[in-house]
Amino acid sequence: MSAIIQHLIDAVSLGGIYALAALGIGLIFGIMGLINFAHGNFFMIGAYVIFLMSGRPVLIVAATTLVVVILLALSSDRFVFRPLRGAGGPTLLIASFGLAYLLENIILMIFGGRPKAVDFGHGLVESVTIGSVRISQLDIFTIATTAVLLTGLTLFLRKTRYGTEMRAAASDFRMARLLGIRANRVVATAFAVSGVLAAAVSFLLVAQTGAVIPGMGLIPVLFAFVATIMGGLGSLPGAALAGFILGFGSVGLQIVLPHDLVPYRDAFLFTLVVIIYALFPGGLMSGLRRQGGERV
Amino acid sequence: MLDVRDLSVDYGPLHAVREVSIHVSASEVVCLVGPNGAGKSTTTLALSGVLPLVSGSVELEGTRLTGLSPEEIVRRGLSLVPEGRHIFSDLTVRENLSLAAGVRGDSKAFGRDLEHVSKVFPFLEERRNQRGGTLSGGEQQQLAIARALLTSPRLLVMDEPALGLAPVIVQQLYEVLLDLRREGVTMLIVEQSMERAMQVADRLYVMVSGRVVLSGRSEEIAASDLKKAYFGVKSERGDVQ
Questions:
Q1: Does a structural domain hold residue B29?
Q2: Cα B221 from Cα B201, distance rounded (Å)
Q3: Which of A170, B9, B55, B232 has its CA 20 to 30 A from that of A202?
Q4: Which of A:256-295 have CB within 8 Å of B?
Q5: Low pLDDT (below 50) residues in chain B
């Protein structure tokens, strides 16, 4: 029984990271129709900020990482995507690929290609025992961070004026503008929120791996992208749900697969994803329906 | 109040609207009528900044709107209720209405206006927590008009407000429009039904194939002139353009 609870905690922890990453992508897609592959590089930049700041008090590291990643997200909107307002989805997608390559190569030039150990989160390796279940502080930290951010995001979207404007813009951007909602402000807010989510993912990735390396955001962003599609593009609850499904799927397969097949876990996981796509072609949740075809 | 001069709009190689000039005076209700594909909706989208102009100019109370974004144009007093209502279906009625508050500097004035539109459309208060997508077509149309009114427009532009509604609902809707007219709300309404246009409008503009072919006061335009205009024959009365 305790083993099952342990696995469930692992699944929630991993799913939480995927959910946060997927929400960052889903938020931008809902408003702009942009699948921002550079989002994974936001994780990477955040991780390198943590590397540079390691050894300092955690709150200072957290605040600096948050500010840098939010500024990076806002700058990417201002200097890369805003000049392309009105361009089609493929143009925006290629621009996001270009930005991703640029950021990765900047990190490669400065820090090189080798992994670097980070003195961060070592206090989280210890475990606490509740009954017969041992829970690592890292899992508790990950689950708590995910819960706080998901709750905060939900409250922001449901209870604030900016959140309501973002939901309206995600549903029908043209109509939102006809009601006076400023396009640039809504998009910038979405990028800032995706920056907050990306900074949190940076923390969780560094805490789990204890190292940074260029390209470290690629795998998480691929899983996040899959979760965003699986949830139903444009549906934030769907993206979060699909993130957790991927987390449970990964941990579940890790347990049930024969030892020799464990290295191929992701192949089995994505086979399950393909089956889900076949059963729910529009995604798990119908999502924020795109009433107006127009995006910015 | 509204002065549109020689407005032309293209969809790629297609000339959708050609040299259209429209004038709407304060407290006046003007209808833009014409068959499908005449360019009426394109004209409203161009007035509200959604579509760029190829040439021409748009002024509202002497303020030039040409080249401004939709969010700037609504701030300068021109609010559009587009064809198809475009209610935010996942947002509640109250949230749909509250979006209009963004263009208002004065929250007290917005509160007063919200109270007023709730009297004009009583169901809005009763269903304030209901999602927009769950309202009937007629209720959605009224919500769309209420939402536009809350932006405090000098000119309310409506594109086929009766489209897709049952006749009895259309009659109720037009009674509301007549009430708004009595209150002095200035309106430019796109309408396919000549009968309904005559019911509410002070003046009419008839568009065919992207051009205004006839205009004049409703009572001065004879049915025979309208038929001729629809079929591309020059009218004998009214201003042929």
A1: yes
A2: 12
A3: A170
A4: 288-289, 291-292
A5: 235-241
